[in-house]
């Protein structure tokens, strides 16, 4: 297995295990009978090493999904854990409601933004303000409806003044997002903007270098999910030129090709 992929997989498993309440580190003994504390998640490494790139489950493979009811139940349980853990208590928020996610719990396509805004916080749903209205148009242009996809954010609570999530805030909330991805098991992910893109890809590169080509995210189960980064709808609203719109549409067309979707005739 590629060392970078293994590192990402171990890190994601570690965060997920922490979320699930695993807070111990196994102790092993050497041949000299000295106690040695294993590094975090060392007990998973042998199993992870057995996963070969050719045999690792991929999102675009024809794999059966759990029922819609089972997936929704799992998401509801995850939300309950989020509420109980309240990772947002460790940083400043200006929220009224937790904005966990919205859409089809068995969606083939999942969109991930950065954080709720004022209208999202008021309604408790992601992407319902001006950016959400533009995202809805993008989804329809892909010959889909909002009810057919799943939409979530890195942060589940609104930052003060709609500030961009910090690296630490994203880290604290990442296990819940990663679990959402595992439960939904999409065939493709679209990351909207840099915070979501950098979190999933573990990169500091600029969006201009990241968008327009496929990347990979390894979910907590070890499943490899294709990722297409693109500009956030808020960015597009601020830069609503033919050139920038064409870039985003080009990214979305690659997603459509991957999922076998045909363009809506009124996409513009």
Structure characterization notes:
This protein has 268 residues and is of the alpha/beta class. It folds into two domains: 3-49, no CATH class; 68-259, 3-Layer(aba) Sandwich (Uracil-DNA Glycosylase, subunit E), CATH 3.40.470. It contains ten helices and eight strands. It has helices at residues 3-19, 45-49, 68-85, 118-123, 130-141, 167-184, 194-201, 207-210, 233-238, 242-259, and strands spanning 27-29, 35-37, 102-103, 109-113, 150-153, 188-192, 215-218, 224-230. Helix 1 crosses helix 6 and helix 3 packs antiparallel against helix 6. The protein starts with a helix and ends in a 9-residue tail after the last helix.
**Largest sheet, strands/sense/barrel:** 6 strands, mixed
Q: N-to-C terminal Cα separation, in Å?
A: 43 Å
Mean pLDDT: 83
- Identify the strand order in the major beta sheet: 3-5-4-6-8-7
Structural class: alpha/beta
- The unreliable regions are 15-54
Give the radius of gyration: 19 Å
The CATH class of the largest domain, by name, is Alpha Beta
CATH topology of the largest domain: Uracil-DNA Glycosylase, subunit E
CATH superfamily of the largest domain: Uracil-DNA glycosylase-like domain
Outline type: globular
């Amino acid at each position: 297995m590629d060392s970078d992929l293994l590192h990402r997989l171990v890190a994601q498993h570690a965060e997920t295990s922490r979320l699930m309440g695993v807070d111990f580190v196994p102790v092993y003994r050497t041949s000299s009978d000295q106690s040695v504390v294993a590094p975090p998640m060392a007990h998973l490494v042998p199993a992870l090493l057995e996963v070969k790139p050719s045999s690792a489950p991929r999102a675009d493979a024809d794999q059966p999904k759990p029922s819609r009811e089972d997936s929704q139940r799992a998401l509801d349980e995850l939300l309950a854990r989020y509420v109980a853990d309240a990772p947002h208590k460790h940083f400043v928020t200006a929220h009224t409601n937790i904005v966990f996610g919205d859409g089809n719990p068995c969606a083939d396509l999942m969109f991930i933004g950065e954080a709720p805004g004022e209208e999202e916080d008021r309604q408790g749903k992601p992407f319902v303000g001006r950016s959400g209205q533009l995202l809805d148009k993008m989804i329809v242009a892909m010959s889909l409806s909002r009810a057919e996809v799943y939409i979530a954010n890195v942060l589940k609570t609104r930052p003060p003044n709609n500030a961009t999530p910090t690296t630490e805030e994203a880290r604290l909330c990442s296990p819940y997002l990663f679990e959402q991805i595992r439960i939904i098991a999409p065939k493709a992910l679209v990351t909207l903007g840099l915070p979501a893109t950098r979190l999933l890809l573990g990169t500091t590169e600029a969006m201009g270098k990241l968008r327009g080509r496929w990347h990979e995210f390894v979910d907590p189960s070890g499943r490899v999910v294709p990722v297409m980064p693109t500009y956030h709808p808020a960015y597009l609203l601020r830069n609503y030129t033919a050139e920038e719109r064409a870039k985003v549409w080009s990214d979305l067309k690659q997603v459509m090709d991957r999922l076998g979707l045909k363009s809506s005739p009124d996409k513009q």
